[in-house]
Amino acid sequence: SIYAKANYKVSDTWSLFGDLQLRSVTYKANSAETGLVDDTFNFFNPKAGWNYENNANNALYFSYARANREPNRTDYENGSPRPEKLNDFELGLRHLDSKVKFNANVYYMAYKDQLIVTGALDDVGAPIRENSGDSYRLGIELDATISILDNLFIRPNATISTNKNKDFFFKRDGVLTSLGNTNIAFSPDFIAGNIVSFVPMTNFQISFLSKFVGEQYMANI
To answer: What is the pLDDT of residue 20?
Structure first.
């Protein structure tokens, strides 16, 4: 792989950033589990965006990234997988002051041939994945660190999202059936957590962690 990164400051408030990755992955195998495999994947993964800082406490950013991911050995053992392709758009806001650090990030992830777990397991207990065609993940991520006292902090976070397979087809009783848009397996629409941290002395910390995970499905149908 080859990786390059760049940042350019346009003005006191505006800056541009980007990176580029070129990857080449080659698989060769011939076994009872995988069959004959002789695949080469060449991936072009660019990312670009901008930052806007109107003062020392607040910043706004936008980014676009193209990403590709190759299948793994288990995928080959359970079918004829295709590499996963992703176009990722993100818009975010950061705030920082002496008492509060806050981040909000809105994202839209458009997939082609996303490798999604089906809910089934293979003969050694590994999750079986399949390419889902077109799918997307749309949501907002929120997290903060709030200083209650000099030695007492709370760190809440939440993710609200919708995660869908588009025009999903499923073979039922030997018949290929269209199910329309379905929920992506193991992808809850709501996740929230919190950490309460107390630091009574240097190099010593006590934390209480809590987490809530919303309803999710064990299969894509």
So the answer is: 96
Q: Where are the beta strands (DSSP E) in the chain?
A: 2-9, 14-31, 35-52, 58-69, 84-96, 100-112, 115-121, 127-131, 134-149, 152-172, 175-183, 190-201, 204-213
- Per-residue pLDDT tens digits for 118-136: 888 888 888 899 998 899 9
Q: How far is CA 86 from CA 55, 89, 106, in A?
A: 33, 10, 16
CA angle 176, 177, 181 (to 5 degrees): 130
Cβ atoms of residues 153 and 190 within 8 Å:
no
pTM of the model: 0.91
Q: 182 vs 56, 162, 170, 178, 220, CA distance in Å?
A: 43, 10, 11, 10, 6
Q: Length of the chain, please? A: 221
The number of beta carbons lying within 10 Å of the beta carbon of residue 180 is 10
Among candidate residues 115, 69, 65, 67, the one with its CA nearest the CA of residue 90: 65
Can you read off the two tokens belonging to residue 80? 């004829």
